[in-house]
Amino acid sequence: MAERLVGKPAPDFTMETVTGDGQEFGHVKLSDYRGKWLVFFFYPLDFTFVCPTEITALSEAFAQFKELDTEILGVSVDSVHSHKAWINTPTDSNGLGQLNFPLASDITKQVARDYGVLIEEEGVALRGLFIIDPDGELKYQVVNHNDVGRSVEETLRVLQALQSGGLCAMNWKPGDKNL
Description:
23% of the residues lie in helices and 24% in strands. By secondary structure, it is α+β, with helices and mostly antiparallel strands. Residues 4-164 form the Thioredoxin domain.
C-alpha cells in the first residue's frame, strides 16, 4: 500500500547535480532549500521526447518561480554525465540547451523510490512533481503517466494557492479571495 507524503516532512535526499549551464558538477541535499519553496520534479530519462518540453518550459518560467521565492530541481535516474551531455546538446538535435536550474542524478533510484514514483520493473521514474514548503513539509504532489507532460501554469497556480495561506476554492486563481 502506498504511503501518504503530503502533509509530512519531505523525504530527505542527497544527489549529484550538474548546473543548468552544463559546466559544473556538485551536490544537492534537501536542507539546501530550507527557507525557500521548492518545485522538485522527476522525469523518466534524458534524451527522450516529452521530457525536454517540460524541462525547458519550467526553465522559461524560472523568473516567475523566483518571484515566488521558489527554486526548481529536476531529477532522473540518469548520471550527471548524461545530464551534462543533454544540456550541452543543441535543442535542434534533441538537446536541452542552457537551463535556469540544476538537474540531479538519482542513479541509485533511491530518491524516486522514497518519493513513490519509481517504476521498479523499468528502472525509471514516473513524472512526479512535488512542492515542498520552506520548512521542508511536502505540500503537493502530482504523478502523471510518462506519456503526458505536466502544466507549468497549474504548478504556478497551486504554488500561489499554497502561499496564499488560506483555503482556496476549485479553480482558485491569484487575486481571488480565500474561503
